[in-house]
UniProtKB/TrEMBL annotation:
UniProt cross-references to InterPro entries, sorted A to Z: Acnase/IPM_dHydase_lsu_aba_1/3, Acoase/IPM_deHydtase_lsu_aba, Aconitase_4Fe-4S_dom, IPM_dehydratase_rel_enz
Lineage of the organism: unclassified sequences, metagenomes, ecological metagenomes
Enzyme class: lyase
Cofactor dependency: [4Fe-4S] cluster
Name of the protein this chain belongs to: 3-isopropylmalate dehydratase
Catalytic reactions on record: (2R,3S)-3-isopropylmalate = (2S)-2-isopropylmalate
Annotated function: Catalyzes the isomerization between 2-isopropylmalate and 3-isopropylmalate, via the formation of 2-isopropylmaleate.
SUPFAM superfamilies: Aconitase iron-sulfur domain
Domain called Aconitase/3-isopropylmalate dehydratase large subunit alpha/beta/alpha: residue spans: 7-285
One of the Pfam families matching this protein, by short name: Aconitase
A molecular-function term among this protein's GO annotations: 4 iron, 4 sulfur cluster binding
Length: 286
């Protein structure tokens, strides 16, 4: 039976399906930041729990970090007291539980959805979550990536699994070439104008078409990032040569492991004849 990319990723990570129509799926990568993690860590302490799989978790402060900070920076220099407390608490929690963090003094610190791919922690075929709605960004790498709430952050830390309801499939084909001055964000905004801010609600949107095939990974990440603005929980794009080249340049995988993984990664696309609940084609050249 022909499957969509979303269906493939879902089946690959399905642990258990419940009578309630919810399912338990395994999570490969969990990104953490300072805003949605403090209560989750407190929940672990209260229940005397430890993270199930430490190396699946990567943390960085990115919501409350000043963008202008000179050559060096310390937490103590953050002016806003609430922002400072959140960054300090992330430091404490990561140190206590042994979670790898790129802290405010690290040159690798950055926006979590950019830092992850750039440092090679986002790999094709992964399930990825973070306490941030724009986690859909990582879907550009052929990942099933979504934002989760604070209680779910705690659940993933403790079990490495997530209880959710499977989404419907939606396909958006961007065909043509962009005119000068038009960017990937512009076509995402056009999509939102076309279907509305709730047009993708309850769906995972797979972006495809000739424009997507020609787009850089950064452009693809922008489009998947904005899937949430169209109401979708998930945005994703099939793996191709552009994806493989980016991952090769940014990951720390050995050549042997990379070559083995590449065989699987190349299967991460929707099959011919796969059924989508909704389809839409947009000519980006117009």
């Amino acid at each position: 039976m022909a499957k969509t990319l979303y269906d493939k990723l879902w089946n690959e990570h399905l642990v258990q399906k419940y009578d309630s129509n919810e399912s338990l799926i395994y999570i490969d990568r969990h990104y953490l930041h300072e805003v949605t993690s403090p209560q989750a860590f407190e929940g672990l302490r209260y229940k005397n729990l430890s993270p199930w799989r430490l190396d699946a978790n990567i943390a960085t402060p990115d919501h409350n970090v000043p963008t202008i900070r000179g050559e060096s920076f310390k937490v103590e220099l953050i002016d806003d007291e609430v922002s400072k407390i959140q960054v300090v608490e992330l430091d404490k929690n990561c140190n206590e539980f042994g979670i790898q963090q790129f802290d405010i003094t690290s040159k690798e610190q950055g926006i979590v959805h950019v830092m992850g791919p750039e440092l090679g922690y986002t790999l094709p075929g992964m399930t990825i979550v973070c306490g941030d709605s724009h986690t859909s960004t990582h879907g550009a790498f052929g990942c099933l990536a979504m934002g989760i709430g604070t209680s779910e952050v705690e659940h993933v830390l403790a079990t490495q699994c997530l209880k959710i309801t499977k989404l419907k499939n939606m396909q958006v084909c961007f065909e043509g070439e962009l005119k000068p001055g038009v960017t990937s964000k512009d076509i995402a905004l056009h999509l939102i104008k076309t279907i509305g801010t709730a047009g993708g609600t309850g769906h995972a949107i797979e972006f495809s078409g000739s424009y997507i095939n020609s787009a850089s990974m950064e452009s693809r990440m922008t489009i998947c990032n904005m899937a949430i603005e169209a109401g979708a929980k998930v945005g994703l794009i099939a793996v191709d040569g552009v994806t493989i080249d980016y991952v090769r340049d940014h990951s720390s995988l050995s050549e042997d492991i990379f070559n083995q993984a590449e065989i699987f990664w190349k299967s991460l696309h929707s099959d011919d004849g796969a059924t989508f609940n909704k389809t839409l084609t947009i000519d980006v050249s117009s």
